[in-house]
Design a protein that fits this description.
With 141 residues, this protein is mainly alpha-helical. The protein contains eight helices and no strands.
Length: 141
């Protein structure tokens, strides 16, 4: 199985390098990685997911839940689909339906969080977003 995982990493290394570069650049420039929040200032349905995954990986389940409870659905679904693909060399037939279902649940959870938590952490606004910067830049001309 390790051979297949290394093959997968080699096969997608360009994508992985681009993603790592994106994360480094956006963290340095904006202090965050979410393109929705960087652009608009509003949190997206996945906001907190990276922190939640890190907390989940370090067995800090309560913190993971606070960041984004949907991590408890996404991680097993993605891990299961990847393992299925590695073991069978085929995509799971119900993968699209499963991902859409979890995606819809994520959007519903986002609506709940926006109505009950916004503008408090982890659903806090990013006031230095690009739209704000462009509008303020235009005022200063």
């Amino acid at each position: 199985m390790m051979k297949q995982i290394l093959h997968l990493i080699r096969e997608y290394r360009a994508f992985l390098l681009v993603m790592i570069g994106y994360i480094i650049v956006t963290r340095l420039l904006f202090g965050r990685i979410c393109p929705v929040q960087i652009t608009t200032g509003f949190p997206c349905p996945g906001c907190g997911m990276v922190h939640a995954a890190i907390y989940l990986g370090t067995f800090q389940f309560e913190k993971a839940f606070q960041e984004n409870a949907m991590v408890f659905l996404w991680v097993p679904v993605i891990a299961g689909l990847v393992l299925y693909w590695i073991c069978t060399k085929k995509m799971f037939k119900g993968a699209k339906v499963l991902i859409c279902f979890v995606g819809i649940l994520t959007i519903l959870y986002y609506i709940y969080r926006m109505t009950t938590m916004y503008p408090k952490y982890p659903m806090d606004p990013y006031t230095e977003n690009l739209i704000h910067r462009i509008l303020n830049w235009g005022k200063n001309i």
